[in-house]
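Q: Structure tokens for this one, please.
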Amino acid sequence: MGLPLAVTPVRLYIAGITIWEMRTMTAFDERKDAFEKKFAHDEELRFKATARRNKMFGLWVAAQIGKTGAEADEYAKSVVLADFQEAGDADVIRKVKADLEAAGKPADEGALNRTLQEQMARAIDDIRAGR
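A: Here is the predicted structure, written as tokens:
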């Protein structure tokens, strides 16, 4: 946006702000709004991926303890809800580990964490693929 050399920019003051400052503020505001929208979108995708991961993890655990059909779906929902108890994955791991042990299945926390991370990768792939 170059000006010819013979023209000097004219400053119009509105409430103590020059037009040039207003343009800069508008561009900054637009950029800020774009970042905020991207952040909100990314957080929504993260929430969806985490919920999907927890459901898939819950279905996997349900199969380990012999639940099928509607019973497995209900168990998967309980795993999704368990994630709202505290920040992070510890609440999910704790619930699943206790349920596996109650069913007589030994549960290694490290293996459960690895499976949870694998399920997250699958959930992200599903969301990216539009499934």
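A few notes: The chain is about 70% helix and 5% strand. The domain at 38-128 is CATH 1.10.790.20 (Major Prion Protein).
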